[in-house]
Amino acid sequence: MAFKYKFQMYKHLQANIANIYADARQAAEELEIPREIRGKFGLTGGISGCPAPLREDIMQAGEEAGKAVIPLSVMVDQIRELVKDTYGDEYDAVPTSTCEAGLWVTFDSLFTPPNLGRGDNYRARYIAPLEKHFHHQGGYGRPFPGRYKDIIADRGTTPGELGFYGKRQNNLDTLIVQLAGAKYDVHGIKYHPVPLLTTVNPDETYAEMKKQAQIHASMLTGITSLGYETPGYGYGVKDADGTPVLQKLYAKLAKEFGIPYVIDNAWGVPGIGHDIRKSGADVVIYSMDKASGAATSGLIIGREDIMVPLRRAMGMHGDRWGTGSSYGKAAYVTFDPGKEALATQIQALKVLRDRPEVYTQSVDDLFAVVTEEFSQIHPKLKAGILINKSYNSRAVEVNYEGTWANGEMGLPIFSIEDMYSGTNLLQTGMAQMGVIPTVAYDGNIYISPDLATTDSKGNLLKDVMRYGVKAQVRLMEIIARYAGII
């Protein structure tokens, strides 16, 4: 079976979805995945729609706080102290209900024009590199230039004005800039451009970003990017300290133009992951329920001077009569994280400060499982696969862009539009095998622990995790056969 054009391959896959699902179910039987765990474990605890079970100590902290009388401003100050223990006194923090809430309050506080004052308002514009997960960090302004006006397309469960488009803020534009060296080929059953980022050139990207910043300087109010550190996300080139060079260059650009650099590090962990001191970013935003294992909540960490307006917007920066901190009403009281979430954040940050191995050991063990199982994949696929470990995301990245090398068709790449339309076979096929899938689009698969693959203390259940990884490998081979690759 051979296809002249890649769209023909994806059309063939669509026509054979039922057959692929049948083969996937049969493979689950051959792998002897126990029926009692099917549908009850998965390849990541980092997806908001299916949060991981809380670790024993995290659960206990939430329960104890729920029974205690504690002023919430006291708990917020505890979080501030823990952040300062890690990064130094020049940094501050503010918790939110979710990471997306953290993005919203940060962008509105730092990027948008003022709402008050006579006369028409000016338009503001922030730079968002065209990278993965763009609908999060890049979705808060109207896309510019016009070719990107429908870049978010069908994403979200409610498309249109009440979907991702509804996040666009007051008089704010998103200046979309492609990364130098990246590829934006069209792939997927839901055929859309996908960012393929393993070949990103940091220096050339900086030069292009600076050129665009100079063109739009009169409206420029900020720059944002992801905080990940793996090749599949475009951050494979690092300095001697292990900091992605591209993130340092974004920070350099921000300083040259006097604007804040905000990092969306939703799938990241404070302390053991991205180091704001080394990257030079102004603000980093975390989803504390993903890799950190707290209850659903977000955390904003940044330079003290930058954090003042964010803390004021959350009602946490002091009362009118002169207190140093508060927990009151303000513009974004709707993003209040609540007592139990604060308690679990405190516990997670304490463990990250005092016993980081609780978080890192499971990643080391997972990396061993993933590398061992992927060593068994079909040789033609294996040659194009890169596997990298990330403490920042507590994940193992499996990137297969390389299967498309030398002008040959490789393992099918599914777009994020496929994920939202239910045609990402690397995800929906896993569900047929009784495994809750992980993020697996744009030629990049992120595997992480915790979704019933760790015990109550955070130790990896290697046998359970292995079932999931074996299933992912087998599914990739099934899809490759229907694509005529093997």
Could you characterize the architecture of this molecule?
The protein has 486 residues and is α/β, with parallel strands linked by helices. The protein has two domains: 6-53 and 357-482, Aspartate Aminotransferase, domain 1; 56-354, Aspartate Aminotransferase, domain 2, CATH 3.40.640.10. Helix content is 37%, strand content 13%. It is built from 16 helices and 14 strands. The chain has helices spanning 6-15, 17-30, 56-67, 72-87, 99-110, 134-137, 202-215, 245-257, 276-279, 304-313, 339-354, 357-374, 379-382, 416-421, 425-432, 462-482, and strands spanning 91-96, 124-129, 142-144, 172-177, 186-187, 192-193, 220-226, 261-264, 283-287, 298-303, 386-390, 395-399, 440-441, 444-447. The strands form three sheets. It has an eight-stranded mixed β-sheet, sandwiched between helices. A four-stranded antiparallel β-sheet has the order 11-12-14-13. The chain has a two-stranded antiparallel sheet with strand order 5-6. A hairpin with a 2-residue loop joins strand 13 and strand 14. Helix 2 crosses helix 15 (425-432) and helix 2 (17-30) packs antiparallel against helix 16. The radius of gyration is 22 Å and the shape is globular. It starts with 5 loop residues before the first helix and ends with a helix. The model has no long low-confidence stretch (mean pLDDT 96).
